[in-house]
Amino acid sequence: MHNSLKNIFNLFFPEICLICHNMLTTGEQLLCVSCRSDLPETNFSEWQENMVERSFYGRIPIENATSLLYFNKKGNVQKLMHKLKYKHHQEIGTFLGNWLAERMIISKRFRNIDCIVPVPLHAKKLKERGYNQVITFGESLASILGIPLLEKVLIRVSKSKAQTFKDRFERSDHIQEKFDISDKEILKNKHILLIDDIITTGATLEACSIQLLQTSNIKISIATMVYTL
User: Fold this and answer.
1) Would residue 217 be called left, alpha or beta, if left means φ above 0 and alpha means ψ between -120 and 50 degrees?
2) Beta strand pairing status for 179-181 and 154-156?
3) Cα(114)–Cα(125) distance, rounded to whole angstroms?
4) What is the DSSP string of 20-50?
5) What residues in the chain have per-residue pLDDT under 50?
6) Which segments of the chain does DSSP mark as H helices, in order?
């Protein structure tokens, strides 16, 4: 949109912060500076043997792992994730993907990634919601890291109940989810970045990785928007 037209549009329909709902000023996108600075960043991209990586010890072999933000129940991160997953604010995925990609580039721990594979939704849930909330996140990562997003390689063949806003003790240690691969050839000899929105117990990412590891000479790293304490 041309700047003058955008200014007129914003005069009648001002952009507001998705958290505090105050009007955004020039240069602010989605969140005001104050709300963005208050988000609890993990710095896991810089931290080897961080909490995400340690959560998979003895479960699956991974190269590196990171999450951008800590999740606190009833906090601002929960508000953002709710808007992303259930209120069609897919631009949040783009925003968080851009942010995390910058952190991953600075860390230099993710330089050898060949492609990005998103955790898929079950076909029925995808039809109900209309979109996979991880895709815009993956598109941003792919664009900035300069690697392809392989959206339809991993397929979910069993449906799970949402775990996002449950207390940790209420979550199942093993979500019985099953996945399949549509094209193993494209993944051979690749270092994959497996991505999801939130990591809680890690059971979903574990189930995906077990299936992916059946491919010849594959390596897996993991990145998520949010890590649940």
Assistant:
1) left
2) antiparallel
3) 29
4) T-PBP-TT-BSB-HHHHHHS-B--GGG-TT-
5) 1, 5-12, 163-174
6) 3-12, 33-38, 51-55, 76-86, 91-107, 123-129, 135-145, 203-212
Q: What is the DSSP code (8-state) at residue 151?
A: T
CATH number of 40-228: 3.40.50.2020
Judged by phi (left if over 0) then psi (alpha if -120 to 50, else beta), residue 44 lies in alpha
Domain ranges of the chain: 1-38, 40-228
- Contact of 66 with 52, CB cutoff 8 Å: yes
Q: Report whether 20 contacts 80 (CB < 8 A).
A: no
Give residue 10's pLDDT: 47
Q: Give residue 139's pLDDT.
A: 98
Q: Copy the structure tokens of residue 58.
A: 């003895």
36's tokens: 């963005």
**Quick one: the chain helix, strand, coil %, rounded to 5?**
40, 20, 45
Is the pTM higher than 0.85? The answer reads yes
Q: Which residues of the chain form beta strands (DSSP E)? A: 65-71, 115-118, 154-156, 179-181, 191-199, 219-228
Determine the Cα–Cα distance for residues 48 and 54; give it in Å rounded to an integer: 9
pLDDT digits (tens, 9 = 90+) for 200-217: 999 999 999 999 999 999
Asked if residue 184 lies in contact with residue 218, where contact means CB atoms within 8 angstroms, the answer is no
Q: Which of 73, 108, 89, 110 is nearest to 198 (CA)?
A: 73
Return d(Cα 62, Cα 167) in angstroms, integer.
26
Q: Which residue has the tokens 């041309």?
A: 2
- Model confidence pLDDT, tens digit, residues 8-25: 444 445 799 999 999 999
